[in-house]
Input
Amino acid sequence: MNAKLLFTSASLAIAAGVSSAQAEDLTLCWAAWDPANALVELSKEYEAESGNKMSFEFVPWTEFASRMLNELNSGGKLCDLMIGDSQWIGGAAENGQYVKLNDFFDANGISMDAFIPATVTGYSEWPKGTPNYWSLPAFGDVVGWTYRKDWFARPEIQEAFKAEYGRDLAVPATYAELMDIAKFFQGRDIDGKTVYGASIYTERGSEGITMGAMNTLYGFGFKYDNPDKPYDMEGFVNSDGAIAGLEYYKALYDCCTPPGSSNSYMGEGVDAFKSGQVALQMNFAFTWPGFDTDATVGGDVTGYFANPAGPDGDKFAQLGGQGISVVAASDKQEAALTYIKWFAQPEVQAKWWKLGGFSALRAVVEDPGFVASAPYAQTFLDSMAIVKDFWAEPAYATLLQASQERFHDYVVAGNGTAKEALDGLVADWTETFEEEGKY
Amino acid sequence: MTDPIAQRVAAATPPRLAHRIRGLSDRTIAWLFVAPTIFLLLAVNIFPLIWTIRLSMTNFRTNRPNNEVEFIWFENYQKILTDEDTWTSLQATAHFLIWTILLQVLIGFTLAYLINKKFRGNDLWTTLIVLPMMLSPAVVGNFWTFLYQPQIGLFNYFVQFLTGTDPASFSMIGEVALAPWAIVIVDTWMWTPFVMLICLAGLRSIPSSIYEAAECDRASKWRQFWTITIPMALPFLMLAVLFRGIENFKMFDLVVQLTGGGPGSTTLLTSIDLKREAFEKWRTGYASAYAVILFVTVFGLASIYVKALNKVKDR
Amino acid sequence: MSFSITEPSNRQKWIAGILVIGYAILTLIPLIWIIATGFKTPSDAIAYPPKLLFTPSLEGYVNLFTSRTRLAPEDLAALGDPTTWYDKIVRSYDMVITGPSRYGERFMNSVVIGFGSTFLSVFLGTIAAYAFSRFKVPLKDDLLFFILSTRMMPPIAVAIPIFLMYRELGLSDTRLGMILLYTAVNLSLSVWLLKGFIDEIPVEYEEAALIDGYTRFQAFYKVVLPQAATGIASTAIFCLIFAWNEYAFAALLTSGTAQTAPPFIPTIIGAGGKDWPAVAAGATLFLVPIMVFTILLRKHLLRGITFGAVRK
Output
């Protein structure tokens, strides 16, 4: 309510054309990673145009959620603009921590139809599926795969693969094929070095193993809840398909990952791939530009593909990425909104993509030149078309902690069965939703 | 040696005033000297602690500022003490605590004993040995994940060098059986010098006259070690154990960077568990109760221990 | 060399020396590895098996001190040839330097907060320890144990209230706030260690000074302080080690303005993954001041501990 009131005054000011009457010092908060550096570069144009000065607060991924949610929850004024993780949206919207952007979008002719639909649902909407927008899609991200194109192309490797599996070595179309390829490479000697099958997410501390395992779970038939009865999870979270998906993930972990992959996330995946340890690597799309220019795996050495299909042909990919929001506690909402307005412009978005920022604007990604602009551009589009996101409920953090523990205990530590893990997950999640008063 | 000005002034003034100029009373000085410390500790430690205790009896969640806060007495405490996960993480902490202290005392004392033989250059080598404890635990934990990488890291190759095991065949922080030892190794590497320094102080505090007397009585070196060295150094050893014990009970930075609590919950020490509850699940009330329980545990154990320490000292 | 009968034999010295040096070398390997990694290129750093010999590179240090961004090939071409050696390194990855990184700021914060709180905790600790040592303070033992007990609190336990309290007081994310916090945490150690040292200084010295007409303050300042210098120096080392390296409070309570280096260093990232050479370079530089401080005060550290330990 408070936020709404504040917002009204801010939007009135903008409507009256008083955009940035005086130079402001704006602080934008995001995670500390590659794209953030690109955004600093991009924002120089905004500073020149608006006269406002941009400061940046980049928090490391491991501390990002703790630090920033603490900031939001306590009503801190550190950040005027927040590029917050997609799962925060429910809590931030329900607690009035973000400014609702509908009126602002209408007043400035920004249409959500101009953005990739999955990113609008994933980053901006709360409640999901309703036209209530709390952020502008800022950075599209999704889980996909990289592979060693150069190894795949070697005749002797192709022959050996065909001899073993009776088909050509190619980008996998199904998870079963992916497992074959990973098994094939596991322990193989290439150029005098032992290499391994695949690098996948197994990190325990924040969100790693969930962001990884969810891909195969989705592909094998996992659903968060009953489509007809929200928060009814029995038989959906722990359906036979979901169980098979988790078993698959564990099988992949057991057979085909490099030794010591028990706590691996984005950075470890990059290390494993760049050092030439693995043939396949699961990772978020934001890492791809880094491979393209790498000294060892750059250029034609690396290929990219979207998540393969599950047994029933289902293709899904875990959504990453973030939208940009205005913090309700900020005193400079008006100036902050001018940044979003600037950022939403097609030219700026086009430059954003060139600098390595994954724009979610359709004008950019549907441009005829887009696919040819980078070797991973098509894979990004394919992946973006099949995304699914984790719970974005206000209680998402508790839900995530539960899946982290259940998945890691089963997949990495090897305790119990997949059914027990998912039954346990249903129990954990049900308890959380009970506390939230959802039943 | 006397201060002529003060003396002259004192001589020229009536007694009452003289007393005032000669300085504040001892009692006032005592309070003046102790007060800032007590005040700062009250403000930065005790006040937040009381706040924590108050929060611990509520269902407050930092991420739901709009929810009504209910006072629920000891419900959180009850939940924690009956939660199996609490005991799992206490077990992990106990394993970590016992082994780090045991190893650090053994190695630290041995080193101090050897250094006390005063070979040439012992000062230089002591300074070098002390270096690991100068590093930031978070940075160390982070860097050891690199050293422990089976493929890229140095540790497994070192083990291969010693035992011939294939470096790719095991992963220190990845395997349930090895991870608890991985954190013990790093902590021991880092903090043995601390125990060593305190032991060295203890050994150097033993007057050589005692050994000389023992020598005259023809006591064997072995006997001297057990009847003089160990008892005389014991209070120092115990002090080292106290400090390491307290530090490792609240161990957070090193392990959170090293394993993040995994694999599964194998190295989920209580402080890491607590951080999850407080800053990831945002169950503020619950986490506060957890914090209070941990504090009371350390406090209780430490008070018993300090009593024992004082007894040994007074002997 | 004295020829006392308790002096270890030469053979004993040799054995002791070899064992200690062996341990020192073993324990220094990880440290040397950190320093060496700082001079590797990112691909050498993650090579397997690990590279013992490599061509040194300053890339880690360049990455540590700059932020860089990727540019499209045509924009890069428009920039012309790189002019400096560090530009060249960065350009080989199709990137350009956009400005300095925040390592410098974080490092300065560490210097101010580390040394500031060390000074404050040693100062407050000395006067409190003196009072505890010399005067009849009511409930002395309880107070001393209370002071020690404040160190038993897990930082996370008080982080939430401190966060809220600091916000109210305007100390949130400020250097002053962190100095006060670290001082409070270090006071227990400092009071306990210094009390030990001051206890060892014979009371007779001050009594003589008092009889000579010194006030208590003067006696404290001119007689006790010089005697306790060694103890103060070694206490300062321990306080600095903690304040310099603290992570949990810094990670939870600071961000833009007052963040120190320890939460910053592990998160230095390069293209996509972790930039190990830059992390190692950051860790190496971060070790230097405290190492210098320790080496300068080394005599005090070793002598100080011995001195404070002499019991009656």
Observations:
- Chain B touches chain C through 111 residues (CB under 8 Å).
- The CA atoms of residues 275 and 287 of chain B lie 8 Å apart.
- Residues 12-21 of chain B have pLDDT under 50 and may be disordered.
